[in-house]
Amino acid sequence: MRNYYLAKGIGVAKYISSAEFGVGGRVWKINFYPDAYDSIYPGHVSVYLELVKGDSNTRATFKLPILDQSEAKRHRVCESQKFCRFEGPGTRRGWSAFMSTYDLESSKFLKDDGLIIECTICVAQSKFM
Length: 129
Fold this sequence. Notes:
By secondary structure, this protein is mainly β. It contains two helices and nine strands.
């Protein structure tokens, strides 16, 4: 994500989306909320994975690590421990309190007004006979 400070202040529940990408025969995107997903978590950024195209009742586990852009190359990872159900296109799963804005802005995760969030998804495949 580029231009974090420009995006900061766009408002609660407003987000910036990644490019769409395919995994497991479905299309996904990452939504980054610089002013939080909802007003319950002021002072936090939120990150959600959204199913853009795919079957209803898709089940998947996922990780959304934010990468440290210093030479230490550490990262913070949020991940679903169980399979999450995506009921259909437009369904989002993620973290409203992914990281405090203070922690993000004082960390090595933010560099040159940009941050990198990776995504790993494991989609459960159903087999019918």
